[in-house]
Amino acid sequence: MSSKSDNRDLYNLVLLFVACVLGATKFLIEVNKHGLWKECILSVGFVGGFNYFLYYLGTTNILPFSVFGWSCVISFIAFCVYWSHLFNGSPYKQFSQNQLKRNSSYWAENSWWWNLDGWQFEEEVAKIFILNGYKATVTKGSGDGGVDIIIEQEGYRGIVQCKHYRNPVPPEPIRALWGCKDDFNANEVILVASSGITQAGVDFISNKPNFKVLNLDDIIKMSQQINYSQVGENYVANGKHGRRLDI
Fold this sequence. Notes:
This protein is an alpha/beta fold. The protein has helices spanning 2-34, 37-59, 65-89, 97-102, 110-114, 118-131, 171-178, 199-205, 216-224, 233-238, and strands at 135-138, 149-153, 156-163, 188-193, 211-214.
């Protein structure tokens, strides 16, 4: 009977150890993906140091040991809430820093862009928005009203539709995109049309200052404005207050 109990305790200990290792590995992968190593070191050091201090006070009978126990529980909950906020608020939510830079050497090549399919084009455009100071989310879903990317800064939201066509975009999808503005509470509507839009489309947006059209040359120009020295933990902070679109 005792042997079975000992084995069960051993199995539980092994499972707990494996769960802790997997959880820590997943956490560190996310930290690396979002470039938040400074915040990781500071938060782990603070939580560990504070709880060790309470543990020391408990061993010297200055405080009851229950204070240390409750501190561990509360610190763990606060730690999870803090990191959930950091991960969800990061401009690198969909792309790692390596993914953001992977194709950047080709962005100046007009021919490279034309070899992309629709999904690839949307992702590369989103990366350029991110590196220009926006938090960008590729929707990739039905029921989005034709909106492919949502870009945000503090107090600003823009909706982006990508049309990677060889010919200028006619007015019908332009009108449909403008109709999505209020549904998304957007401040600005942006159509990324590789070959521009027709004259009828130009006429439609002529009295709409919150509707911008970017062609492929504009996207290439945006890619050339990126300051790669900002990409990393400093850029995460700068991304909350990046510049508005001035193409």
